[in-house]
């Protein structure tokens, strides 16, 4: 029997999502809980993390502003959603709704998670770089911008 996937220990971070995890962990007050780089049979990429609400809101705001530019930073949009975990603590999930929706058909999932894997990995690297930029704002202790200001995103 050919084994298509190597079972990983839960504590091992997959290589394509590691830069995103490291970038999030580089933000003061953020700690990642779980992650996945996305798989054809296993689901879309995501990172679960704990953070102060203000920090998660800042990241979500930055992601929304990045999506408004004519030349987007990412291949697909990324969002932060919050909900309560099993211990009734507020946690957050960084993910792409566009990638989540790919599991409606096998052909679409195969296209993105197998045929376009390099593009997905590039998107994850761009997301990691973007989060490192946001860490500069957050780690200075000034996570809010004056009214009317928009971050410059390259």
How is this structure best summarized?
The protein has 154 residues and is α+β, with helices and mostly antiparallel strands. Helices cover 39% and strands 15% of the residues. Strands 1-2-4-3 form a four-stranded antiparallel sheet.
Task: Give a verbal description of the structure.
This protein is an alpha+beta fold. It is 39% helix and 15% strand. Helix 1 (18-25) packs parallel to helix 5 and helix 4 crosses helix 5. The protein starts with 17 loop residues before the first helix and ends in a 15-residue tail after the last helix. 30% of the residues are buried.
Highlighted features:
single chain, 154 residues, alpha+beta, disordered N terminus
- Helix/sheet category: alpha+beta
Radius of gyration: 16 Å
List unreliable stretches of 5+ residues. 1-5, 146-154
How far is the N terminus from the C terminus?
47 Å
Mean pLDDT value? 81
The helix/strand series, from N terminus to C terminus, equals HEEHEEHHH
Taken as a percent bin, the fraction of beta residues is 5-15%
Write the layout of secondary structure elements.
Blueprint: H1 18-25, E1 31-36, E2 46-50, H2 53-67, E3 79-84, E4 90-95, H3 97-100, H4 106-115, H5 117-139
Antiparallel strand pairs: 1-2, 2-4, 3-4
Helix pairs in contact: 1-5, 4-5
């Amino acid at each position: 029997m050919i084994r298509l996937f190597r079972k990983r220990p839960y504590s091992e971070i997959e290589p394509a999502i590691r830069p995103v995890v490291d970038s999030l962990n580089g933000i003061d007050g953020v700690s990642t809980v779980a992650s996945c780089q996305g798989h054809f049979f296993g689901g879309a990429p995501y990172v679960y993390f704990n953070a102060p609400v203000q920090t998660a809101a800042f990241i979500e705001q930055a992601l929304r502003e990045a999506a408004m530019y004519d030349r987007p930073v990412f291949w697909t949009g990324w969002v932060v959603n919050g909900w309560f975990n099993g211990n009734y603590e507020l946690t957050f999930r960084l993910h792409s709704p566009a990638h989540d929706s790919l599991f409606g058909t096998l052909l679409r999932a195969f296209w993105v998670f197998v045929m376009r894997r390099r593009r997905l990995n590039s998107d994850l690297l761009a997301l990691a770089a973007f989060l490192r930029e946001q860490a500069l704002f957050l780690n200075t202790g000034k996570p809010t911008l004056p009214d009317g200001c928009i971050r410059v995103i390259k």
